[in-house]
Amino acid sequence: MDDILALDNQICFSLYAANRAITARYRPLLKELELTYPQYLVMLVLWERSRASQVTRVSDLGARLRLDSGTLTPLLKRLAIRGLIRRERSVDDERVVTLSLTGKGADLRAQAAQIPQKLLCSLEVAPERLLALRDELNEVLRSIEMRVEESSA
Questions:
Q1: What pLDDT does 53 receive?
Q2: How far from chain centre, in Å, is Cα 50?
Q3: pLDDT at 80 over 70
Q4: Which of 8, 40, 96, 136 could connect to 90 by a Cys-Cys bridge, CB 3.0–4.6 Å?
Q5: Where is 36: in which H helix or E strand?
């Protein structure tokens, strides 16, 4: 019988190692944009929401990326210093901070559009397999989050 505590038998380790490997593949691609991987994720959400003309609150961004404010705040400060985003306190409720892209941040989207294709080419895995994996992981994540919500209710 396999050892239940063997590292290679752990789902968490497979996910962790795959995440690190993919993130490492992104690193040289994102270097051209002068973005870290977490900054890239923030920009993806902001580009997506700006195209839909949606206001983005920091709390909404945190929920979407599953990041707490302690992680998100310094990341957003660095993007603001670079002139890619604006952070503004709501006049109605100063606890609420909204985010918007600057012209420079919006323009960066055109450069970033090449990243997904470059990444796919560098992985040498059939795109269909990666899409199926993404969909399966999204299903697993939804299931886990639903169970967490049920247990905390």
A1: 84
A2: 16
A3: yes
A4: 96
A5: none
What tokens were used for 7? 């590292």
Write the DSSP symbol of residue 7. Answer: G
Q: How far is CA 94 from CA 62, 87, 88, 91, 152, in A?
A: 18, 12, 9, 6, 29
Which token pair is 84? 């890619």
Give the span between the Cα atoms of 153 and 142, in whole angstroms: 16
Tokens of 142: 């939804």
CB-based burial of residue 129 (10 Å sphere; 0-12 exposed, 13-18 middle, 19+ buried)?
exposed
- pTM to 2 decimal places: 0.90
DSSP E strands in 82-124: the ranges are 85-89, 97-101
What the block records as the tokens of 52 is 């839909």
CA–CA dist 149, 7 (Å, integer): 29
Q: What is the pLDDT of residues 14-61, one digit of tens each?
A: 999 999 999 999 999 999 999 999 999 999 999 999 988 888 999 999
Report the alpha-carbon distance of residue 51 to residue 33 in Å, rounded. 20
Domain ranges in the chain are: 35-108
